[in-house]
Amino acid sequence: MVLGLALAGWLSARSRAWALRANSGSRLASLPNYHGWYVGLWIFVPTIIFVFIWDAISPNLVIQSVLASPAADGLPAIDSARLDALREARAVASGALASTTNPDALPMVAPFSDALSQYRWIGIALTVIIAGAAGAWSYLRVKPDFGARTRVERVIMAMLILASLVAVFSTFGILASLIFETFRFFEMVSPIDFLFGTFWSPDPMANPDNPDPTRYGAIPLFWGTLLIGAVIAMIVAIPVGMMSAIYLTQYAHPRFRAWAKPALEILAGVPTVVYGYFAALTVAPMIRDIAMSVGIANASSESALAAGLVMGVMIIPFVSSMADDSIAAVPQAMRDGSLAMGATTSETIKQVLVPAALPGIVGGVMLAISRAIGETMIVVMAASTAANLSANPLDSMTTVTVQIVAMLTGEGSFDHPATLSAFALGFILFLVTLALNFVALSVVKRYREAYE
Amino acid sequence: MTVIHPNLEAVDPKMSAEGVSVYYGDKQAIKDVSIAIPAKYVTAFIGPSGCGKSTFLRALNRMNDTIPSARVEGQIELDGEDIYSNKMDVVQLRARVGMVFQKPNPFPKSIYDNIAYGPRIHGIFEQKGDLDGIVESSLRRAGLWDEVKDRLNDPGTALSGGQQQRLCIARAIAVDPEVILMDEPCSALDPIATAKIEELIAELSSRYAIVIVTHSMQQAARVSDRTAFFHLGEIVEYGRTSDIFTNPIEQRTKDYITGRYG
Ligand SMILES: Nc1ncnc2c1ncn2[C@@H]1O[C@H](COP(=O)(O)OP(=O)(O)OP(=O)(O)O)[C@@H](O)[C@H]1O
Ligand SMILES: [Mg+2]
């Protein structure tokens, strides 16, 4: 409806502008379209804001008027029963429910439907009035010398700013809640024990007032995260990603490249649960069997290696597409220069292209690492939830993100240090990925500067 | 058909092309070109834009191989060896026939490493000391040594455009080539930097065969001993530079050098 009004404003203003132009024969300062947009936006924005506000406050107004009606005297005094009755009555009145058996609710239905329809009409009337007022005001300003174009520009800019603020503020909001809960946790368990302890086994059933700090050592988790996400996964992803990028940019036939590059990028779109299946059902047993066959008897079927390998496959596209882009961005002149010196293609790649593209490649690797250490699903399915400080990749291990999930969904109450530890873990992880992204972005930026 | 000026003295060619045609896909960019390029001379290629000068130049060190659609027919010889034969190693060929591009393209490495690049990949030095010597002498011959000797570790891209171009020339001569091909080496430079490069070309011509593509008639007249006028993929006229500029035979050459078209 609001859109319709705005459209009407847009059309009428535009035609008025056309008419003005035809009458005066002079050029308008802005195109008729802009006048249309100007009026349309003037109608749309205030009205839509009003609609949202009205949506928020009108239920309260309805309740108030219902409670003021004589039928409300018969409502039960107990709060919960009273609320139930009101809710049911409202559901029936608005048609969401066919009928109700609640004796308390029945008499309320009629006042509710009255109030609802009354306020709906008020709402519509106000909307129309606001739209009309805003439209009329802006419509009157449509004159030949009126700079509607610049004003529309300003409104568009404001909307864009608003959109980006949403992202920024939600980041800050998330961060603030994380910090708050983290502090609560650190009041119960000291940060020293948490950051440097080597044993992780929070007991959600223990007395929450007196947690055992020795069970909250996060080192095994960070170790597991690093080993799986930053070491094993990268051992897979960096060489494979780099080589495929080099092949695709330097050797592949353009037709093959046009087909293979999107195919590679599809890898990034596979849901991580699917990778998890693959890791747990295919890779992990295979690794165990291989380990057994070479004489390692106690190989577990849940290994850091399996999770890391599959994670590596998952992030190949991150590495390869960044590497691909940055190698392709190295100027052709650089390549020609090297070839003209008598270098072979592979010498050119090794000595000129890769060094020149290195910052971009490093940036891609950093992003891939931060993606890998934030990954949960594969580890849950393939590497278990048991914290284990071990250098043997065949052991089962767990990561920070897995423990966050385990702690938050565990049996502990929300105030329990075991649950709160999830926030501390999340906070540290956040800092680590933030730092990684920061480094990655600054590296990428430096690289851009080198070529402009 | 190419008109060869009558008083062009015959010298032993360093490179010679016989009936060379170059195609990009179906499109023929060079049509049956024959020319002999003498050692220790500067040969200039002039002609209107798009007439195939760069294409022919690139055929001389097989840089056209890097363009998938390009195809070369005919015979090009370096010291009597067919450079398109299977026996010819492209890598060796390009070490012997160096190239300087229109836009300076130093590698994103230090000045030192830029010069050392060729000697390193071709392994033409014995010890580190030799490499230092090659770097110094190449920079000296390119007239750049005094300007950069204190900052050999700075990136090559940090130099000015003219310095970068001389760096690229130094890089090309570091492998001690026999022929240097230059494709409009001064077109991105100001007159002072241009003058320096021209001086350098004159000096280098005592050791190397130099081929230079240029759009500047004055430059061709200043630096070259011989000039070939290209038009629509053919060499219209070839002779001593002084002859080409003072009494061209073909009408098209006359029109071009007097600025009537092009
Ligand atoms: N990579 C390529 N693919 C297809 N056609 C090309 C390619 N390079 C050049 N050509 C064509 O070949 C012809 C000759 O081009 P070339 O670059 O040799 O001209 P040029 O004489 O060097 O011109 P300029 O003086 O502008 O540098 C032109 O018609 C051009 O469009
Ligand atoms: Mg050219």
Automatic annotation (TrEMBL), chain B:
One of its GO terms (cellular component) is membrane. Residues 15-257 form the ABC transporter domain. SUPFAM superfamilies: P-loop containing nucleoside triphosphate hydrolases (SSF52540). It comes from the Bacteria. GO terms for biological process: phosphate ion transmembrane transport. CDD domains: ABC_PstB_phosphate_transporter (cd03260). Pfam families: ABC_tran. The keyword Transport applies. Keywords: ATP-binding, Nucleotide-binding, Phosphate transport, Transport. PROSITE patterns: ABC_TRANSPORTER_1, ABC_TRANSPORTER_2. The keyword Protease does not apply. Gene3D superfamilies: P-loop containing nucleotide triphosphate hydrolases. GO terms for molecular function: ATP binding; ATP hydrolysis activity; phosphate transmembrane transporter activity. NCBIfam families: 3a0107s01c2 (TIGR00972). This is Phosphate ABC transporter ATP-binding protein. It comes from Erythrobacter longus. The lineage of its organism: Bacteria, Pseudomonadati, Pseudomonadota, Alphaproteobacteria, Sphingomonadales.
